[in-house]
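Minimal example, chain plus magnesium ion.
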Amino acid sequence: MQQRNTTLGEFIIEKQTEFQYTSGELSKLFNAIRLAAKVVNHEVNKAGLVDILGAAGDTNVQGEDQQKLDVLANDKFIQTLKNREIVCGIGSEEEDDFIAVNSSDEQDQNKYIVLMDPLDGSSNIDVNVSVGTIFSIYRRITPIGSPVQLEDFLQPGIKQVAAGYIIYGTSTMLVYTTGHGVNGFTLNPAIGTFYLSHPNMKFPETGKIYSVNEGNYIHFPKGVKDYIKYCQEEEDDRPYTSRYIGSLVADFHRNMIKGGIYLYPESSLWPSGKLRLLYECNPMAFLAEQAGAKATDGFRRIMEIEPTELHQRVPFFCGSKKMVEKAEEFMARNA
Ligand code: AHM
Ligand code: MG
């Protein structure tokens, strides 16, 4: 039984044998992530106090307005990951192309690539609603010492060696998996330390919450419309409760604790769905599966999809196993 006062650093050292690669590598990686998380947390928390709100004036590769904190979070994570000399490449929602780290160094032994959404749900910052950072870690597949290639980033989710998120909410938490369950750590801001607060997190097998942007109902495929009607029917344990924050990390986190399903389907507005496979859906799918839940595109397991593009989008159905299976039934009926 884990002690409640275990710190993230201690926990990683204790669990090092569960990580299939060299001990120390995981610590190095997480040292970088947790340090950047603390810096971003500090900035997010003072967002209301200083004049750093609003669009930075740039648009990102998806053509969306970038908030200043998106840029800042992106810079902090990239800078910290580069400094720790463990990562050979970084892919980010805020960068059009992947970044090769130390690619000219013949002695470069860095083996890991990180894909991330440095500040997801960033339209919520202005209104004091939770946002998050999502990360996904792979081993490179091209030879160590050579410049990293696009193929290193285009690996299916089943190849992830670790994934997680940081939620900047009423408290700040870091939740991660290395394929041996999911553990959650809460930041004590007074001393800047993450403590194990949620050991071995599990999604309830079913739940009573559905999270979807119902304003887009008219644009959804019939299977999703029928599933939403099913959630609203008065029968058995239904109608379910509708809860949609508009921050994937926050909606996922709540559903994992309480039981629920999150849906961002394809629609006439977003023909391939809105969320990105590599740094939003795959890491969340890895966490979901490790917590006993399910993540699909309505038909296929998210983690088995072979990526073709860095910023690829995919429909996303994720949450309590029985709820996702029910939604899939409606999708199959209308395929
Ligand atoms: P972002 O990466 O631009 O922040 O977009 C991703 C976010 C998710 O966090 C959230 O679940 C979804 O977009 C909300 O989209 P919508 O406003 O279309 O419902
Ligand atoms: Mg995002």
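The two ends are 46 Å apart (CA to CA). Residues 179 and 290 are 6 Å apart (CA to CA).
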